[in-house]
């Protein structure tokens, strides 16, 4: 007979027992996956939708194989000591102190709590998904955040229940954990700040997936135009016009000066600065600028373009073409095409766009020879 390695309750565990238990757990895991896969194939082959609550019940059914495996392990161990009942086995205290106790029943209860927590999360996911997808303004980012918050709540409840199972005085544990959490929280202020920002975005819905936004870069030196791809609990994924995916903390969307081009109005206002030489026919310039803007299919004709004379520079007048467009993501292409049309019209009507020039004045000295005075006039 093999030498006992350790005890589990009233049973002495030998090397052969360890091998048998390991094989039983391995086989039960393989059987669970095979049963789950075959049941799924059977339902699909019979045109039965495997979605929503059916997936939850399918997973619950496949987990029952572990219950059978546990009972088989118990029957094998009972051969060594037939007088030990199943109740005596699960209630036997492996560790028993004033504050903490551990028995087979505790392990089983925690295992059941973890399974129920996973099932609860799955049920909540299905319920949230079904409810939100019925709404006209469905936003995948909102669904994701709701699901993540629900997961945190369920996992926290499961953790508290598990503590209650193992510890006789859970208040002492919570008091000690609170001090640890406060210390950890001080070091994770940014994480919690981003988490709260994610909840704010969820509640206010000021920025949603698919919106076009303009925000300062992290160094603050330039503005970035990007499309919101995903909003999670702590971070947001945005796609720039170059096709790069940037992962930014949610606080960048709530604290900085973020302009949402898609919020409440599908139209956005854009500007093109046009320098005009002094002496040009300003009325003709305005007509040509409006004509160039209206010729583009992306420019909204109902709002109509407008022209402003914004400044008198040293060598030119600065006009500003203002127009509304509903294709904000491709606005750089729209601006480029409008500028090309402006250039064509200006060349057709002989409207000059000034460019830097230098006039050099050469003065004559008293002996009649020319010399360079070094005086320049810039135009």
Q: What's the alpha carbon Rg, rounded to whole Å?
A: 37 Å
Shape: elongated
Order of helices and strands: EEHHHEEHHHHEEEEHEEHEEHEE
Would you report the number of β strands?
Answer: 14
Low-confidence stretches: none
Structural class: alpha+beta
What can be said about the biggest beta sheet? 5 strands, antiparallel
What is the mean predicted local confidence, pLDDT? 79
Structure explained in plain terms:
This protein is α+β, with helices and mostly antiparallel strands and 379 residues long. It has 3 domains: 6-190, no CATH class; 209-260, SH3 type barrels (Roll); 268-348, 2-Layer Sandwich (Alpha-Beta Plaits), CATH 3.30.70.100. It contains 10 helices and 14 strands. The strands form 5 sheets. Strands 8-7-6-5-9 form a 5-stranded antiparallel β-sheet. Helix 9 packs across helix 10 (331-348). The mean pLDDT is 79.
Provide a brief overview of the structure.
With 379 residues, the chain is an alpha+beta fold. It is built from 10 helices and 14 strands.
Write a concise keyword list for the protein shown above.
379 residues, SH3 type barrels, Alpha-Beta Plaits, 10 helices
What is the topology?
Layout: E1 6-8, E2 11-13, H1 15-45, H2 53-78, H3 86-91, E3 93-96, E4 101-103, H4 104-132, H5 140-166, H6 170-187, H7 189-204, E5 212-216, E6 223-231, E7 235-240, E8 245-249, H8 251-254, E9 259-260, E10 268-276, H9 282-294, E11 306-312, E12 317-325, H10 331-348, E13 358-364, E14 370-378
Antiparallel strand pairs: 1-2, 3-4, 5-6, 5-9, 6-7, 7-8, 10-12, 11-12, 13-14
